[in-house]
Design a protein that fits this description.
This protein is 48% helix and 20% strand. It is an alpha/beta fold and 150 residues long.
């Protein structure tokens, strides 16, 4: 156990999905990261066809992947300006839960932050699978930010 509470979350992986849910997640992480003087790793998992087959087929980056890099760079720049924290970015490829777990382990993070989408019924089955997989397999705590209601 860390001796100082400010050492508790030294490195936070922030899972971004380039949707409106990021607008809920980023302010919460900004506040937590600033309190803990954390290093932040912004991660997006590209999971389109090109991303899922990138290595096997030796593909060039898709337009979607280029847009994802741009989003990560712009988001990191704004986050740095607002917090003065160290912010790094990573574009992972493939299945979101598998990729996030791999990046979390390789980067040695202390916390994984992500947003829930508040879906109902079929949306929970499709979109809830990432959170569910992380909840069962992550070896570090999860920080889940719910969507705003009403």
């Amino acid at each position: 156990m860390p001796s100082d509470s400010n050492d508790m979350f030294r490195k936070i992986l922030v899972a971004l999905d380039t949707s409106a849910s990021d607008l809920e997640l980023l302010p919460a992480v900004r506040e937590l990261g600033s309190m803990m003087h954390s290093e932040v790793l912004l991660v997006h998992v590209a999971d389109g066809w090109a991303a899922r087959n990138f290595d096997q087929l030796n593909l060039a980056q898709s337009e979607e992947m280029c847009e994802d890099w741009k989003y990560l760079e712009e988001t990191a720049s704004a986050f740095r300006d607002e917090t003065q924290l160290t912010v790094n970015i990573h574009l992972a490829l493939g299945d979101p839960s598998t990729a996030l777990l791999k990046v979390a382990e390789e980067a040695g993070v202390d916390l994984i932050a992500l947003a829930s989408h508040g879906h109902r019924l079929i949306g929970d089955i499709i979109h809830g699978s990432t959170i569910d997989a992380l909840r069962h397999k992550a070896t570090v705590p999860l920080f889940i930010v719910p969507p705003k209601r009403g």
